[in-house]
Specification:
Elements (H helix, E strand, L loop, with lengths): L11 E3 L1 H9 L5 E5 L5 H13 L2 E5 L1 H8 L7 E4 L8 H4 L7 E6 L4 H13 L4 E5 L8 H7 L7 E5 L2 H10 L3 E5 L5 E2 L9 E6 L7 H6 L2 E4 L11 H26 L8
Helix pairs in contact: 1-2, 5-6, 5-9
Length: 263
């Protein structure tokens, strides 16, 4: 296996939903709350912190602004320990036929956070992002994910093409998505272990990444728009994958049969 970069920092999680989820996952060192803040939702988080043994500190709003890196923190910030990236190999062992998402150069942290949230909601097992020219895990990503980052393995790799080839060697099908794809995303079989590769804002998949894919498909557009936001595209293909995989699971349950054929 190629050695991967393993360290990154989430630093601080802010906003009611994101902090509540981080506290629930007990991935918090302490929680900061603006002095004088007494809303019901904040009190629920305070109660959860006390139950989990997590320290709660009341501080001036300026201190929360500094901790969050923004003034838009809803008066609550969770200071988290260092978030370590997962090794690529660990994503392969979450279950027998993993469903992974790979982002090829998504630079907007809000888009990355939205993809993280959708991936968790759709039952994906992990996310792979490149080390260079792409957003990493930051407090902005955690906020946009609204707590979902605590429930998803994320690997950061130095060479995306090499990593895709590595995933293929482990029997996973690699599907790329872009507007000029020769197939519809509805024509693909997502029931086995598979990797969904989506391009960054504006430029789509890089040539070598596209060539590393087994198949490239498109999401048909019926209106006058020419493309979808990457987080929306991820939601479309992830939920088709989830639908197929759930149908296959239900079928196996009713028939007592095995899974789909290996790669």
């Amino acid at each position: 296996m190629v050695k991967r970069e393993s360290n990154s920092e989430t630093g601080a999680v802010y906003g009611i939903n994101a902090v509540a989820e981080a506290v629930r996952a007990q991935h918090v060192e302490h929680v900061m709350i603006t002095q004088g803040q007494h809303s019901r939702r904040v009190q629920e988080i305070i109660d959860a912190c006390r139950k989990a043994g997590i320290s709660v500190r009341f501080a001036p709003r300026a201190a929360l602004d500094r901790a969050a890196g923004t003034a838009h923190h809803q008066d609550i910030v969770a200071v988290c320990p260092t978030r370590r990236y997962d090794d690529l190999e660990s994503l392969l062992h979450v279950r027998e036929k993993p469903l992974l998402v790979v982002l090829d150069g998504v630079e907007d942290p809000r888009n990355l956070g939205a993809v993280v949230r959708t991936a968790v909601a759709a039952g994906a097992d992990g996310l792979v992002i490149p080390e260079r020219r792409a957003a990493g895990l930051t407090s902005t990503v955690a906020h946009a994910a609204a707590g979902a980052l605590e429930h998803l393995k994320v690997a950061r790799v130095t060479n995306l093409v090499r990593s895709l080839l590595e995933l293929k060697e482990h029997g996973l099908w690699v599907y790329g998505f872009e507007a000029a794809g020769p197939k519809s995303y509805l024509e693909l079989d997502y029931c086995g272990g598979c990797v969904l590769v989506l391009g960054g804002e504006g430029r789509g998949l890089h040539r070598l990444v596209r060539e590393a894919c087994d198949l490239v498909a498109q999401i048909p557009l019926y209106g006058p728009v020419q493309s979808l936001n990457v987080s929306v595209a991820a939601a479309v293909v992830l939920y088709e994958a989830a639908r197929q995989r759930q149908r296959a699971a239900d079928s196996r349950h009713h028939t007592g049969g095995g899974g789909t054929a290996a790669r």
